[in-house]
Amino acid sequence: MMTRCTLLLPVFWLLLVLLADSVSAEGQYDDRRCKCVCPPRVINNVTRKVYLKNNIARDDCECGKVVAPLPDNPVEFCLRCECEYESRNTMLMKDDRPRLVRSASMLGRVDSARQRWKKQVEVQRVNVYDRRNILS
Within 10 A of 18 (CB to CB), how many other CB atoms are there? Predict the structure, then answer.
């Protein structure tokens, strides 16, 4: 009985560490931002109309806290801006890349199998209809 407990204890700790690592890594891929689309404005010879601020609370998603630097008349400028809060999990995007590679690889294999099958059918047609031989 004692040997079974001593064997299960390291396995338990390993699972606990892996679980804690996956939970901490999960938060790294959350992407929350506020995006404000405003009328075009020239700052340092660059025309800008989209302003982004990452890792911001939903309640703070407003023109005055996202647009920097604010123009001389911020109230009038902010009335013409549309701000929206965006939240997404980029872990899902990272997971899709290997799946796409596998899908492309599988499609390549299916295509090559289809080409081989078409060649076999062509050989059978030649043997049956032209030479009048039945394949055994």
Answer: 10
In 3-state terms, what secondary structure has residue 47?
A: strand
Structural domain span for residue 123: 92-136
pLDDT tens for 12-47 read: 655 555 555 544 444 455 678 899 999 887 766 778
Q: Could you tell me which of 23, 88, 31 has the C-alpha nearest to residue 55?
A: 31
Instruction: Provide DSSP, 63-91.
Output: HHHHSSS--SSHHHHHHT-EEEEEEEEHH
Q: What is the pLDDT of residues 36-79, one digit of tens each?
A: 999 887 766 778 889 999 888 899 999 988 988 888 888 888 99
* Shared domain check, 83 and 44: yes
Residues contacting 32, CB < 8 A, separation 6+: 54, 55, 56, 85, 86, 87
